[in-house]
Amino acid sequence: MPVVVDVREPDERVGLVVPGSVNVPVGRFDDGTALADVPFDRPVVLHCRSGARSARALRVLLDAGHPDARHLTGGVLAWAALRRD
């Protein structure tokens, strides 16, 4: 089962949250401190609002050697749209 990581800021998570996701803001990927909080022994799916920040965080994980990390294209907005269909 993958770990779902929301890279939005904590105040952005109000109202629309993927159940079971953990919050690790993208700034922590930028400064490298997120690497201590993201498991490297499990698949990881990153998301943000629309996909831009999670793509940035994904690059950090892949550059650090994560073997199974992805990001949700379209972000939480795409996830919410799929749930409505």
Automatic annotation (TrEMBL):
UniProt domain Rhodanese: residue ranges: 3-83
Kindly give the Gene3D superfamilies that the UniProt entry links to this protein: Rhodanese-like domain
The record's annotation in SUPFAM superfamilies points to: Rhodanese/Cell cycle control phosphatase
PROSITE patterns for this protein: RHODANESE_3 (PS50206)
Record-linked InterPro entries:
Rhodanese-like_dom, Rhodanese-like_dom_sf
Coiled coil residues, start to end: none
| Protein name per UniProt | Rhodanese domain-containing protein
Q: Source species, please?
A: Angustibacter aerolatus
